[in-house]
Design goal:
CATH topology of one domain: Alpha-lytic protease prodomain-like
Largest sheet: 3 strands, mixed
Distance between the termini: 31 Å
Strand order of the largest sheet: 1-2-3
CATH superfamily of one domain: Cation efflux protein transmembrane domain
Strand content: 5-15%
Mean pLDDT: 76
Helix content: 40-55%
CATH class of one domain: Mainly Alpha
Low-confidence stretches: 21-66, 71-86
Number of helices: 12
Amino acid sequence: MSEPDVHRAISLKPTPWNPRSPSPRPATASHEATHHHHHPSTQTHTSIGKNDGTSTAVDTSLPSDSVARNVPARASESDVESQSLPQYTPENDPYRLATSLKPSSEMAKIRANTSRKRDGFGPLTLNKKAGQARKLEKFYEEQNENIERLLKPVDDHRRDAKEEAGANHLKFKIAVMGSFAANIILAVLQLYAAASSQSLSLFTTMADSLFDPLSNLALIMSHRAVQRVDSRKFPSGKARIETAGNIFFCFLMICVSAIIIVESIRNFATHKGGDTNDFYLPSVLAVCVAFFTKFCLFLYCWALRNKYSQVRILWEDHRNDLFINGFGVLTSVGGSKLKWWIDPMGAMILSVLIIFLWSRTSISEFKLLIGITADTPTLQLITYISMTHSPHIRQIDTVRAYHSGPRLIVEVDIVMDPDDTLRNTHDVAEELQIKLESLPDVERAYVHVDYETDHAPEHFLKKEL
């Protein structure tokens, strides 16, 4: 199953006052000792705290009364943290996934073989065996991360999501807050540069720079609208208002770029001036300041791009802005120093590029709104949690997870003993529902109980009207 390409969606980007995590971060080596509590003769129980969990748009904390009935409470998260971390055992690892973990000693041997097979070209190598060894090392690294992520308890997933969202990370806060503050200042500078120089290329860069703080403002307003939702009018909440607003912004950016293209064509057809345009040094300096600021933010986010998924999105934005601002100032200066037609030509090229970039973003937003499936690691995690939730669950019939705006809807069909009591069946299903809803980014979980798997699917993708 290929992972859906929704990393360009604005709905999954962080905001200064509501940082969000698009997807659970893979476990690192520090979590090798963590485990998934599961005993073959007892049922796994999870007590959900009032402030647990985060989401991509609003705080999805479960209410204090959202606890499975007739289920004993478990030790608090702080108590679990204070205990020594046990090792993997047949009880907490019933499928013995830990046996497939590649030890660090073997990984070191593969890494050493890779370095010995290099042919003297530094990071570039023409040795096929060295490339194969590096691919093998990368495969085992990803396998270890996937196994550790599956064996990690749900509480750890919630805690890691909170940490990744910037609860205790100063560097992350600096990246998000610094980018937001810089975008506001640079938008003003770009507006001044475009208005004073009347350069079409700078108008294009100004239109792109204005969108960054406006999108943050839209996310903040959407967050407030979601918090004030009337459950009688909107039973499923207002989380998708954020995605709908982002689609509107994408459409607005495409329209502005199209207008600049039309204006550039008109400039080509009606130009009556000299061979060059007027040169405005303050406008060029303003754009150069914007370029230098974006370059500093690009370097800062580059150092953190592999640690936080949100910072990686910001890094990609700064990278695109560097190209747009750099190309815009070059064509603007070229129009005033070389030939006048360089400026409108540059504006047209930049506008076409912006239309292409925001079209891809709008497609990602449409996928979230329509209900694209979750990525493969998320589906694997949901399946494993359902499989190891309780010994009373005999089989897993169906697992679905799809977007409803920026967050996920989860559907799980489990198979239980037909002779089991209604109370026990209800408690197992309800506790699994609460556990799945406590995962980061999961808005709602539905657990359906059946007693066999030979029947036709209950829900069809196509329905006759």
